[in-house]
Design brief:
Helix content: 40-55%
Distance between the termini: 32 Å
Number of strands: 7
Largest sheet: 7 strands, parallel
Shape: globular
Order of helices and strands: EHEHEHEHEHHEHHHE
Number of helices: 9
């Protein structure tokens, strides 16, 4: 297994891409800490799935990633309990889509606080422990929208573009301590969000995707596992697209 004896924290792991990442990390031997904010029932369900995958002491870690105080408290307690934090996956994210002239200030702020400030908060706290260990893996979930933009998503696109710049800068700061920081940039993935699109729109989108279909959450999870493992020890500051060729 690629991740035996590793401890991983995955934010926003109660569903979708986060859930798939948590399960794939566990399959490769990691002890997985599932972060969530609101949906405790779904988080409990993910924990049950993890326990079927392995006997490692997987756990739930509820906190709001947009609150630095909460992040610092919970990650510190987590490291005290596990004695290490080897992998951080910054996956938590939300959308509040609207055209710019109709967008409320609260819609801008909520998206930026979760999608970008949340990455700052978790990375800053995790980095303190990883620097002491002189090792670590951080994987940030960006988005195709942050690379090419998307109408009605100025807030979301800006937040994910910020994650990309953050990833590259932090990789340069932490590289000398054997800590890698990379980003995965999903395109259209089969999640609750994309499944809510009407079938006609989905078909129209697929016409522009060279591989002809939406990706799966597992497509993202497999790449995250690779980046979290020693197989990717000489990769840092990279943004890897998983989008079926829609953006090259």
């Amino acid at each position: 297994m690629l991740l035996n004896n590793k401890v991983a924290l995955v934010t926003g792991a109660s569903r979708g891409i986060g859930r798939a990442i948590a399960l794939e990390l566990a399959r490769e031997g990691a002890t997985v800490c599932v972060n969530f904010q609101k949906n405790s029932a779904k988080a409990e369900s993910v924990l049950s799935e993890l326990k079927k995958v392995s006997t490692n002491p997987h756990c739930l870690v509820p906190f709001d990633t947009s609150s630095y105080e909460a992040v610092e408290k919970e990650i510190t307690q987590l490291v005290q309990a596990t004695k290490t934090l080897d992998i951080l996956v910054n996956n938590a994210g939300i959308t509040k889509d609207n055209l710019l002239l109709r967008m409320k200030e609260s819609e801008w702020d909520e998206v930026m606080n979760t999608n970008l400030k949340g990455v700052f908060n978790c990375s800053k706290v995790a980095a303190k422990f990883m620097l002491k260990q002189r090792r670590g893996r951080m994987v940030n979930i960006a988005s195709l929208s942050g690379e090419m933009g998307n109408p009605g998503q100025t807030n979301y696109s800006a937040s994910k573009a910020g994650v990309i710049g953050f990833t590259k800068s932090l990789a340069k700061e932490l590289g000398s301590r054997s800590i890698t920081v990379n980003a995965v940039s999903p395109g259209f993935i089969q999640t609750d969000m994309t499944q809510s699109l009407n079938p006609e729109l989905q078909a129209e989108i697929c016409k522009n995707i060279p591989l002809g279909s939406f990706g799966t959450c597992e497509d993202i999870a497999h790449l995250v596992v690779f980046l979290a493992s020693d197989q990717a020890k000489y990769m840092t500051g990279q943004v890897l697209g998983v989008n079926g060729g829609l953006y090259m």
